[in-house]
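Internal ticket - ligand job 368, magnesium ion:
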Amino acid sequence: MKAVILAGGPGTRLRPLTCTRPKLLMPIANRPLLDWTFERLSWAGVSEVILAVNYLAESFQQYFGKERYGVKIKYSREPRAMGTAGPIKLSEKMLTLDEDETLIAMNGDIWCDLDFSMLDAVHRKSREKGGVATITLYEVEDVSRYGVVELDREGRVKAFVEKPGGKVRSRLINAGIYAFSREIFDYLEARKMSMEREVFPRLAEEKRLYGFQHKGEWGDIGKFEDYLRVNFQVAEALAAGKPRIEGSAEYNSTVKFVPPVILGENVKVGANSKIGPYAILGRNVKVGESCQLTETVVFDNVEMGGGCLVKSSIVGEGVSIGDSVRISGGSVIGDLAIIASNVKLTRKVYVCPRKEVEKSAVGPKRLV
Ligand code: GDD
Ligand code: MG
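stdout (structure tokens):
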């Protein structure tokens, strides 16, 4: 198996954090999202991955280089954004795909515990019935933000509707992970082209599109709420019982940890602080005395004074926070920002990277 990962989107809804890193390198439990995906692809025996990059393309090359977990990585850079189908066509000439070999293609902003070899096996059955593509499906309550799929009894996709405006009958959505036969390239063009609005509806009409429902964990990290939810899901899986300490950490017996909690390497926590539930702290994070951190993701190299409260929020890399600061209600602090003592940022206040904040701000949705 070979794979193509769509990694070129600008991650607009995750700004200010995506001003300085691509969405796919956002940390999930202290590891970039894409790193989790490479690991799973490697487990399934995928030997080569093409990363279809565009926005902040160099960051991927810097982080992953030419190989990860034994999987060879090639980079395909578009001259301009080409949507979700164009970049796959563009990667065709870089791929060495055997006649019978399955191509996995996926939206890179997905966290999922799918076994890719299972998808391959299902696709091989679809192929016997004339299928060119098998798409992974997931059941959700609110389908409006996704591609919605109706299946027939044989697992064939009857209709594919991207982000439906009105009412739809199905609760099955496109999970953004596909298995393709080589023939897919006959349906793709090297221009700005949408897989969801152009290719899948056509394949469904021709009865060559199949679905496979995934019943494990799945999440798209496109919005802050989703990004936090995925982190917390993974934290539950890794650290439900006791704090997960990655390397060495420094704290004394007055510190209270309420799992799930993940502490990156070399974290220091001051006396009488309460960490968790749902707190993920990156490498070299320093928390002062009597702080409270709940439902929060803190990136690497953050320093925080005493008496701070961080709740339901995200603190970017290298942020420096004074004493008695309150950050809450879905607020997000961009990388390297400096927050002065006593500042309160509540209800979706978004702080730009490197910004020095000296005054409090209240949202909803306020950019500082
Ligand atoms: N190379 C490249 N070029 N990649 C791109 C481009 C582009 O022009 N545009 C988007 N991408 C990448 C993004 O980085 C992301 O990994 C993926 O394509 C999907 O784009 P999103 O912008 O995240 O789409 P979405 O989340 O609104 O919808 C898609 O995902 C849903 C599942 O999460 C669709 O595939 C839906 O049908 C699906 O349900
Ligand atoms: Mg998405």
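Auto-summary: The first helix runs from residue 33 to 43. The radius of gyration is 22 Å.
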